[in-house]
User: Fold these one by one.
Assistant:
Number 1:
Amino acid sequence: MLDDPDQSTLIDENGAVRSVQAANLIMPSNELEKLWSPMSLERLARTYWRFLTRATLGIVRVKYSDNERTVCVLFRAFPLLTFQKPEYEMDDKRGVVRWRIEKGLLVAARGRGGDGFLQIDVERRGPDSDEKNCEVLHAEVEVSNFYPSIASSIGRWVYTETQSRIHVIVTHGFLRSLARLDLAESRVGRFATPASAPAMDDVPDPPPSGERSPAQERPEREPDSSSSAPGG
């Protein structure tokens, strides 16, 4: 069931976009318990990129490197959006995967460098009142502090009626698809096997439900390293 907040897409006076799409999924409690791990969170991240490619009939693709994820049209030479490698937060009730927006053709100059972000946030909200032995999983896809180049160069109305509308449609499709529990295998496999996956306590905790994440605080950049293993 889609559960978007009121005014789910907003543009502030400075031109920064915040867009949130959400859904409540009813899942068997035992199945959700099996899936609740950093490995599944990493697979959820990959599922989002897989859905984006499928929804665009393969025209939009995601290219991976050690420290970036590049959303491009067919080839890396046409980078629409480049994200920093994903960050993961998880506890026994909530899991977050976040990609900071680095650059790209769709990003205005003032929005580059990692201040904006895309994130998927899933939260266990307890037993469902109607379905026995089932639990409510609330899922949100959020874009925040994003400065679209279309809005700054052509106009906000054009952005709202084109790029923003397409994003909402694709995101709603992704959220509906989660009901099938068809999670893609990670391309990177940071948490791929029980032997290599950290315990949940070793993944940073997300902030309490209802509080803003410290995602707007830009972290120190890590040096490139062939031994790094970012997931998603």
Number 2:
Amino acid sequence: MNPFREFQHFWFVIAAFLVMSISTSILYFLQVGTQPIELGGMLLVNGIMIIVLMISYRMVTEVFPEKILVYFGVGLFRRSIPLSRIKAAIIVKNPWYYGWGVRIIPGGWLFNVSGDYSVEIQLTDSDRILRIGSQTPHQLHEAIQAGLRKRQ
């Protein structure tokens, strides 16, 4: 089985945080208004934005012979799914209102940063599902299926 690895960048979040950080810095340097932002306030806001950005700027999905690993940003938030716990995997289209990020959806969880398609994983020990968003859902699905075939 060839290892599968997909990096998806959360461009919307990156752009939003970049705009907010630049705006905060400009407001500090221009000293706009009757109560301009102070240095501490600017550093606090920009520091928080950098931390949130580092946690959420990308999603990485990896399929190994024994597990699937999904993590965001630098890896503080991660989910590992042993292939032995997977009953089935199918490609599904997410409704637009499921959104992006880590979400509770009907019946389980969604990990997604862009796009409409996911691989839905049904677990053997639970009625819950897990959807993993992908720009290449057919390749992700095939990597999971190859891992499941190898385990049998």
